[in-house]
Amino acid sequence: MKASTLPEPVWLRIRYVAIAVAAMVTATTGCGGVQWQSRVEPAMQRAAALDQLILVQFRTMTDPVCIDADTTLFKSNNVLKALKDFQCVRIDALLNKGLADRWGVSVVPTYLVLRPDGSLIDRRTGQLGPDDFRAFLNWASLRR
User: Fold this and answer.
1) H/E/C letters for each residue in 104-124?
2) Cβ contact 91:61 at 8 Å
3) Strand 110-114 to 53-59 pairing
4) Does the pLDDT value for residue 101 go beyond 50?
5) Is 113 within 8 Å of 122 (Cβ atoms)?
6) Helix, strand, coil in percent for the chain, rounding step 5
């Protein structure tokens, strides 16, 4: 019997739905010790109420550097301590292309630190070790 294959557009839709479901599960359960949110606007409101900054991570579910960040960077005690004063938002750059374009994201991972009003304080791209990432967060906190 011949195996049937889905036409590419349907296959891609199914893939993106599966990725979106995985992203929602990750966003609500937290990964690597960070409680990730999936939307910037509510995080901005919470940040304003709590006098915090916002960390936005643009990533993809399949990028090895992004996956590695979950198992190393976001499990570092020093990084977790630094993030306690941040609202953390995780956005899939493929599923949210418009938002990625708005922020000029062309590489994943891209990390943005925002003020509660949404203005950009600083950004970093690519793989960062725990010490460099903590320094990035501390530098952004000083520039609030």
Assistant:
1) CCCCCCEEEEECCCCCEEEEE
2) no
3) antiparallel
4) yes
5) yes
6) 50, 20, 30
d(CA 60, CA 64): 9
Q: Work out whether the CA dihedral 41, 129, 108, 112 comes out positive or negative.
A: positive
- Residue 123 main-chain phi, psi, to 5 deg: -145, 150
pTM for the full predicted model: 0.79
- Structure tokens, 14: 């199914």
Q: Which DSSP symbol is given to 51?
A: T
Q: SS3 for 59-105, per residue?
A: ECCCCHHHHHHHHCHHHCHHHHHHHCCEEEEEEECCCCHHHHHHCCC
Q: Is 55 helix (H, G, I), strand (E, B) or coil?
A: strand
Please report the domains of the chain, with CATH numbers, ordered by start residue: 32-142 (3.40.30.10)
Average pLDDT over residues 72-82: 96
For residue 15, the model assigns a pLDDT of 54
CA distance 18 to 97: 17
Q: How confident is the model at residue 144 (pLDDT cuts 50, 70, 90)?
A: confident
